[in-house]
Amino acid sequence: MTANFLFVSDDNYVKNLGIASYSVLHNMCPVADRVRIFVMDCGITEEHKAQLLRQAARFDNAALYFYNIEQQLDAVVPQVENHWHKAIYGRLFFPELLAQYDGLDRLIYLDCDLLMDQPVTELFEMDMQGKCVAGVADGYDYARKQALGIDLDGTYINSGVLLIDTARWAALNASERMIDFINRFPDELVYPDQDAINYVLAHDMLMLPPAYNMLWMLLDKDVPKMLESLPRFRYTAEELLEALHHGKIYHYAGRDMWCIDGITPVHTAVFAKYHALCDWRSCKRHYSSLSKMMIWRLICVKRALTGEH
User: Fold this and answer.
1) What CATH number did the domain enclosing 168 receive?
2) Which of 164, 160, 163 is nearest to 216 (CA)?
């Protein structure tokens, strides 16, 4: 079995890409015949590309490929002004890879701010029931469906982890429709790429268990109380807590994974594990500020005393 993964990064996020791609190689190379990582390159330096390639070369059955899309991003970025970095649109250009590489019928897209902690071989073998993508429901599922006019009984997934049937994506002309949607409704989009993916593929999605995209913010406070604030959320407190302790993929979801404060102890431990193993281990973790450091230490003491996650 060939396991295909897709990342998008520029040079600002290269150390995230370094540790994230290492976690994929560490978990997938022992169980797959071949592991291929495709990086949609939004401006990574040659020095950092070489470092990423050296890291991948530590695994005999792994290959890493770069595909520069800096010019292609002009199709959407000039028409949308927001605080998001243009690299968020990079995943929409993955169909350009299909003409150059064979065996890309099934592809897993991963954000750079997540870490794999168990193999996900089963995703390459699961029945997608003719659907285009599969993912984990987002915490803002109900609010975003309301805002976008998506069926409230449907699913709004977090786009940080996407299992993609590439032939179905191409048949639906999905990328072009998403770019058009983003450019036509920039003011209505809170998460432009994620909103577009969910709007265009609203009826072409499968929901995965939360273990495949364990979002840290879902465990940042009392889980039952948190769920009360999320109408019609797709997972129970028991499912979330099980996923926290037996996660396949842990997502730091916009929080700097190199920053110590604000992440659950489980997420912190997962980061420490791969930080010690990857080629970016010389990069140190940090607190966002002195005051945050003091607050975070008090939170950790409280958690230790009360047994909170």
Assistant:
1) 3.90.550.10
2) 160
